[in-house]
Amino acid sequence: MKQFLKRHKFSLSFLAVLLVSLYFWQPDPSAIAVHEFGGATMGTTYSVKVVDDRESASGELLALEVGEMLKALDREVMSTYSEDSELTEINKAAINEKLVLSDAMTEVLSLALDVNALTDGAFDVTVGPLVNRWGFGPEQRHQSRIPDQAEIDAMLVRIGSQYLDLDASASTLVKRTDVYIDLSGIAKGYAVDQLAKYLDGRGYSSYFIEVGGELRIKGYKPGEQTWVPAIESPVDTAPQVHNIFYAKGESIAVAGSGDYRNYFDLDGVHYSHEIDPETGWPVTHNLAAVYVIDASAARADALATAFMVLGTQRAFALAQRIGVAAYFISKREVQEGFDDLYTSQFAHYLSPN
């Protein structure tokens, strides 16, 4: 069988706005201190820039504390790769066992269930078994990459957030069937939010945080210059700028998702890593990428994933209905190129004024 397989390690949700800090960051010649540091986390990278007009902190200490926070959230809480993480223990737990959750896990699952309801199931953290079966998860494949419909149907009975009985007030969870939870569509956004919360608590009013493409931006660069994030063109080549937008000094979160960084082609068919929780199959519509601006990076992260499942028209209608700033890039049906569609809330950020 003739096979062409193209697989990238990370999806757009990991790489969506990777150009941002490199392409548009220009150090200001003034004496204002800017602490810049980064590293590896959650299977991707992170980058932080903190404007310190008080010159009151050690950049090395900030870097150390941020690194430790991210390490704890990943290895101890959210990772499906770590055998010792809280999520791994949840996935191993017995059906109907009452599990006591950490504050972080409670917050993430609570938000995940909220977005699941908001998107009529398009965002579902229990879709993990299907993600793994299609070869996009942490489990090694031992069979044909394409499951048959009978196998998909058998797996679908385990898929559904309705099987998660979460009591957020008591921080407990009961799994009503043998579900497998994967937080890859929300964990990086949550990590970004936690770093922003930490910097806010330290009194910083201007920063740029990026974890695998998910962002939190606040204030201005030195010289009262606005941060200018980039929207990446949805092409499987070296990163290219498709468009830019302006943070305008506001405190915003940005997340992106798309199907052009993590996929495979087999016998002339394109298979996206975005799996529809309703059908069990990779999505087949022409939405190539979506960006969401929100107050919360975790919510923006989850919504971007859901919008990729829904497709341009359904996602745009939902974004308009709930008042979300969203930018959609769709592949043209006949000719080459892309069409852009965005909500009025996103239009606010496309102008520098």
Write up what this structure looks like.
With 353 residues, this protein is of the alpha+beta class. It has a single domain (1-353), classed as ApbE-like domains (T-fold, Roll), CATH 3.10.520.10. Helices cover 31% and strands 23% of the residues. It contains eleven helices and 15 strands. It has helices spanning 12-15, 19-24, 59-78, 86-92, 103-118, 128-133, 149-156, 187-201, 297-310, 312-322, 344-347; strands at 33-41, 44-52, 98-100, 164-167, 172-175, 207-211, 214-218, 230-232, 241-244, 252-258, 263-266, 269-272, 287-294, 325-331, 338-342. The strands form four sheets. An eight-stranded antiparallel sheet has the order 1-2-6-7-10-13-14-15. Strand 8 (230-232) and strand 9 (241-244) form a beta hairpin. Helix 5 packs parallel to helix 9 (297-310) and helix 9 (297-310) packs antiparallel against helix 10. It is globular, with a radius of gyration of 20 Å. The termini are far apart. Mean pLDDT is 88; it is low at 1-25.
Helix-strand layout with pairing:
Blueprint: H1 12-15, H2 19-24, E1 33-41, E2 44-52, H3 59-78, H4 86-92, E3 98-100, H5 103-118, H6 128-133, H7 149-156, E4 164-167, E5 172-175, H8 187-201, E6 207-211, E7 214-218, E8 230-232, E9 241-244, E10 252-258, E11 263-266, E12 269-272, E13 287-294, H9 297-310, H10 312-322, E14 325-331, E15 338-342, H11 344-347
Antiparallel strand pairs: 1-2, 2-6, 3-5, 4-5, 6-7, 7-10, 8-9, 10-13, 11-12, 13-14, 14-15
Keywords:
353 residues, T-fold, three-stranded antiparallel beta sheet
